[in-house]
Please model this.
Amino acid sequence: DAGVIQSPRHEVTEMGQEVTLRCKLISGHNSLFWYRQTMMRGLELLIYFNNNVPIDDSGMPEDRFSAKMPNASFSTLKIQPSEPRDSAVYFCASTPYYGYTFGSGTRLTVV
Amino acid sequence: DAKTTQPPSMDCAEGRAANLPCNHSTISGNEYVYWYRQIHSQGPQYIIHGLKNNETNEMASLIITEDRKSSTLILPHATLRDTAVYYCIVRPPFGNEKLTFGTGTRLTIIP
Model:
């Protein structure tokens, strides 16, 4: 199993542009979590899904952020329009029951 | 989720046992203790979890006090690759519930 796969690994974009981060879950895992990590705020949960259904999106900072899970194995996190304060490492993780498996992250820089 | 308290940093000599403490005095009866670690610029990695009995796996041992108000993660023979931030988290047993990360303990293994 290749684990949780995130793409791209690095993204540099200009302020105002749309950014889409992608995550492929481990086969058979039914929960998907999106986290953001910065030096100031640490690891923050943005949103999580169970069986493709969003359960808690209270961590999504504002309407510029949206997440979808169109099928059981894939999710996207979109930021539109992006701002410099969105610069962070974004992780997704999946789990079958316990023991989350995290992807390697996407380092986003908005200039 | 119950709050946890960990020392911000610790050092340990290579080859020695690293003992990382965690206080969780408000833990509820059905909450498990989970440990994760994050090696620089990687996604967090699951280490171990337990309810009230001591647990051991190939990575570490987890010792939970009888009153469950604190626990210790033990890395029996620390190597330089164990240098990381270690997070202690308490949460209900339901696998699809979110993980809330604190600030963790930055463990540095000294050659």
Residues 36 and 46 of chain B are 5 Å apart (CA to CA).
